[in-house]
């Protein structure tokens, strides 16, 4: 769902018109990802390399492919005082693909991941289950998007917020973006999380001054201010991912 020192004001504008990068020079066909639910866990560990290795081994075990489930592990580069060092996400195409009660003991891959979690995953800072409102990315180049800016929000008018967000992303030439609704796991008043993907941190900051000067930014802020409060923002970078099962 990775690099992060930021200007809070600009993030709070909510990527308002972030034609800063994303797909300005690339125009592949963006399409909705077959993702219905996302299990998002933020971890704090001092053994990042070991965590990344155990995640790679779990993906190679094939434990997720049969259910068409995707997975990603991301390093946190900027998140203010939020203590997480990594974000781990599982991407489920439908309700049937969600983990069963005995999933952690059902395969060798899951048991190895469970053992690794106990030894190296460290502290779980937060764990949230989301229902997808929209997940959009170009299938042909999905793996090229490595940096993701996320916005954790309290949205008071989700019915009107979602189409405004989608319209803004399309008008801003963004090709990778998403909006998720919290099902369970919130402790801060968060109701939704939005994300925007970029090929690099440089793509994101490129044209930053132009973004702030764009009249559409002010217009977007005015509309969004009436229906959402940004609780926190973050930037994460992909270190391990497996999404091929989602496109089969």
UniProtKB/TrEMBL annotation:
This is NIPSNAP domain-containing protein.
